[in-house]
Structures are given as structure tokens and as C-alpha cells.
Write the C-alpha cells for this entry.
Amino acid sequence: MNIDIQSIKHRFGIIGTSPLLDHAIEIAVQVAPTDMSVLITGESGVGKENFPKIIHQYSARKHSQYIAVNCGAIPEGTIDSELFGHRKGSFTGAVNDRKGYFEEASGGTIFLDEVGELPMPTQARLLRVLESGEFIPVGSSQPQTTDVRIVAATNVDLRQAVNKGKFREDLLFRLNTVPIVVPPLRDRADDIPLLFRKFAADSADKYQMPPLRLTEDAKALIKHYRWPGNVRELKNITDRISVLEEERMIDARILSLYLPSNAEADMHPVAVGTIDERRFNSEREILYQVLFDMKHEMNELKAMVNDLMHGKDRHPAGNKMNSSVFGDTAAIHPESAVTPTEPYVIYPTVPSHPEIKHVPHNIATQPAEDMTFVEKHPSLEEMERMLIKQSLQRHKGSRKAVAEELEISERTLYRKLKEYEME
């Protein structure tokens, strides 16, 4: 089948060039001529509602009814009546017979959004419709038939819901005949500036003002932010900036004012090569790792000083200090120690072992007099380089082991080694 992806995007207002997005559209068009049930999965705000419309418009049912139902917005006590209808007098307030959505949409398509929110009794009724096309209105004993195409969507893991007893496994199998996965915005990083420009243009038309434009640093910022609310969040922030900012050229400083206060924890490196490739989760994680390593090295330093107090020489015996503190040939003498490149280095001023005559018993209580602190504030790149170097030393150069320890792909590690000239 020859599918014109661009014309479909234009018709349904879909913005983006991501291969993942194109693949989801291709599946929707391919399955449309059939009557197979489709389950659309994806995070909240990714635009799942576009895909049942594509399926309906490219099917033989396109001239019949299309009904979208938000299952999570209908109270549990009335959802059966909404979906399957009711008979007069079946409950208080049922003054007339009423057709349900499945009867109204017969011959067409019904889209069940947030299908994971359906109560268990309603799930059983839906399963019967999928299996036989039959349903029974509330307050009736006579089954009715319907000819309807069902497309469902969810932002929850239905397999986990099955394991927790909140969703029927047989219904999941029936709904998930053809799965379509809509990618989150963070996996479509190159599409984010395009979407921002589209939403900015829409706001400019709506509020009669010049459209917003992004500087290069602002584009980098919006591509690195994780966008937990996906396209919906991006649109809301774009509209807010359009209305509140007089300046039409938006830089990273202005943009950061509109991101959540915890945006630093939600930063996401832009994928390079494949979307499965990951780097460190955040600057904060790297800093925690550095502090952990520094604490370990401090403990070793204290132990060494304690051994000197008791006439022991740890260094010649092979208890080597971590090279990230003293360098590969570091000794305990401050005058002979190699100047380190790593941060937060501590040099003891205790005299060397052969010259020790007497060490005061209270040396541990005199840190200001006996220890010299040399502090260097590292950059993110220096911390990253140090973590990779230490991991390579621990694993004797095994790149696979290093990648596993740092929770990044080997491809990312190779790129980092080349970037830091550590090959």
C-alpha cells in the first residue's frame, strides 16, 4: 500500500518528522480497511486521539457515525447506561428509553479513550460486544446487536492492571488485536521546536500579536526538557508565553521561567542515533556519584593517617589510594604528590613514616591545623569524565562493563570516550 504520510499529517494536523510517529501513522492506515480492534497506547498528552480518526476516515465506515467516549470521565454508576442505553423506569430518573453509544454508532466507529478506567462489570459487557456484537440495555432482558468498530486507547499499562486484578485479561486480548504505540515527546526531540512554532503561530493569530521565536539556546533547552505532559504541556506553555511576554524573541533565560520549578530533575538528554540510547539521568545524579566517591576516598585517607600514627606504612604495603585523588604515583608527602585534576582534594601534612618521632594523640581533633584543604569546583564535563575514568579503572578497561555500571549504551560510551579523548 502506497501511503502518503505527509498528506495524512496535513489533514489531521499532526506535526513532526519522527520515524516513530510515521510508523504509528502507517499502522493506522494499514489496519483501517479491516474491522480489527485496535489498542492505542501512549502517555497522557501525546495525541492518541488523532489515530482513531485516521482509522475511521480511511475505513469503509467513514460515512457512518464516529463517537469518542472518555471512559474516565463518566461516573461508574451511569457508564453502562451511557454505553449500552437503558429502558424507561430502569432506575430513578430514567423517564424514557435511551439509546447508548454502541447503538448510536452501529455501522461506524466508537473510540473508547482511557479504556483502563472501565469498571469490571462494564468490561464484561464490552467483552460480549467484541465477541458476538450483542449487548443488553440497562433494565432490559432482550439482547440487541450492533455492528461497530472498536478502537480503544489507554495511558496505563494494561498488563500490570491485569496482574493487579483491575482489568480482564481476555478483554485485553480482544482489544489488542492490532497495537499502535504513540511515542512521547521526549523521544521526538527534533519535533519539539516545530510544534512550538506551530503553537506560537496559532496563538499569534488568535490574540493578534507577532509570533514567538526561539533563540538557539532556547531550542536546546526545550529539546532537553522531558515534557512529562507531552504535546499538551508544550502547547499550554507556548500559549502562556505568547500572552505574558512582550519580548517576541525567547531565549533560554525567559523560557526557563515558564518551566516547572523542578525542571532540572526533568531534563532529558537528546537521543543520538537511536531513541533507546541514554546518558546520565541528570546533573544531580552525577554529583551524587562524585560525593559518594569522595566520601570513600576520605575514609581511606583517614585510615592511612591513623596507620601512620601507629607506625604503619600503608602505601608500600600495597594499600593504594584511589588514583582519582592522588594520581597514579601519589605518595603521602604533600611536597611529592602529583597535582590532581579531580575536585575536592585533601593533602595531609603529617611527616613521612621514617621521620616520625612522636605523633600527638589528639591529631584527629586538630583538622584545621593538620590538614590542608584544596578545593576546585568542577564542571559537569569534568565530573562526567572522572566517572568514566574511574569506572574504566575498576573494570580494567572493559567498555561493556563500564556502560552497564553507568547505565548508558555502549554507543554513548564510545562517543564519550572520543569526545574526552580517552580512547
Summary: The two ends are 47 Å apart (CA to CA). Residues 238 and 244 are 10 Å apart (CA to CA). The mean pLDDT is 79.
